[in-house]
Amino acid sequence: MAENHEMNFDEFRWENNPFTQVDHVIAVASGKGGVGKSLVTSLLAASAAKKGYRAAIMDADVTGPSIPKSFGLKGQLSAVEGVGIEPAISDKGVKIVSMNLLLEDETAPVVWRGPVLAGVLKQFWEDVDWGLVDYMFVDMPPGTGDVPLTIYQSMNVDGIVVVTTPQDLVQLIVEKAYKMAEMMNVPILGVVENMSYIQCPDCGKKIELFGSSKAEDVAAKLGVPVLAKLPIDPSISANVDAGKVEAVESDLIDAALDQLVAATAKPEE
User: Fold this and answer.
1) 118-142: b or e for each residue (b if 16 or more CB lie within 10 Å)?
2) pLDDT, tens digit (0-9, with 9 covering 90-100), for 36-76
3) In this structure, is residue 10 part of a structural domain?
4) Which residue from 72, 81, 118, 174 has the highest number of Cβ atoms inside 10 Å of its Cβ?
5) How far is residue 112's CA from residue 109's CA, in Å, rounded to a whole number?
6) Which residue range(s) make up the domain with 243?
């Protein structure tokens, strides 16, 4: 394992679009699907925009893109000759690029092999006029396959947020994601446990539908902080389904973002 930390990926790095300056790249990852990774990505980016940061999302889950729907974005992206593809911009100013914004039919399946997916992601980075971005959140596909490998090798990722749920099985999968990040020499910034509990609207009691929280145990084992334990909240689901994720107010996400900002701050900042 120690030898893996000496890997140099400079030869794999993608070039910046000449009109792009991204200060921080944070990947939002999970070991499996269905844990709410895209939701956490959307909420973090929306929180960043509300706090005055220039925020962006690269939807790297090419075969299962869902970010545009959360923000109520439809239609195809346009390009400016000599500049590049222009990202979609949400109501609050979040810049977004997703495969669903390049397809004529957003319901059309993307059935591509790994090398083609890697080529698309390279275009998302090099051919897009991202402009000035303080924080870019990369919504990763689940697992430890070709796309995560490509992202970690080819982009200067400041760190990874791992999204998990309380089930025991997920704890094992989180460790797999952690070990991959370790091999790629990318730090884990923290863990977000989604679907941690549901709060009774009448008495306020927290009910752990999926068993006791494992967030602290997982984080302690990996030596990283718990950034947030998010509840199951029907109002959040309703806003996301309506394309109004930016209307969600979450002190927990705001606090998680503050931790990420502190963890990724450069000396001059």
Assistant:
1) bebbeebbbebbbbebbbbbbbbbb
2) 999 999 999 999 999 999 999 999 988 888 899 999 998 88
3) no
4) 174
5) 9
6) 18-261
Question: Can you say how many angstroms the Cα of residue 169 is from the centroid of all Cα atoms in its chain?
Answer: 22
Report phi then psi at 112, rounded to 5: -125, 155
CA–CA distance, 1 with 182 (Å, rounded to integer) = 9
Three-state secondary structure call for residue 269: coil
Q: What is the pLDDT of residues 7-22, one digit of tens each?
A: 555 667 888 888 899 9
32: domain CATH number?
3.40.50.300
Instruction: Judge whether 269 lies within some domain.
Output: no
- Mutual angle of helices 251-264 and 37-50, in 10-degree steps: 80
Instruction: Tell me whether residue 217 is in a domain.
Output: yes
Across the strands, what pairs with 136?
A: 25, 56
Token pair 């499996």 is found at 32
Beta carbons within 8 Å of 83's beta carbon, 6+ residues apart: 19, 129
Q: How many domains does the chain have?
A: 1
Closest Cα to residue 248, out of 259, 262, 234? 234
Quick check: 59 and 96 in contact, CB under 8 A? Answer: yes
Separation of alpha carbons 40 and 217, rounded Å: 20
Q: Residue 7: what pLDDT?
A: 54
Q: What is the per-residue pLDDT across 197-235, written as a single tens digit (0 to 9) for each? A: 998 888 888 898 888 888 888 888 889 999 999 999 999
Cα–Cα distance measured from residue 19 to residue 253, given in angstroms and rounded to the nearest whole number = 30
DSSP state of 268: T
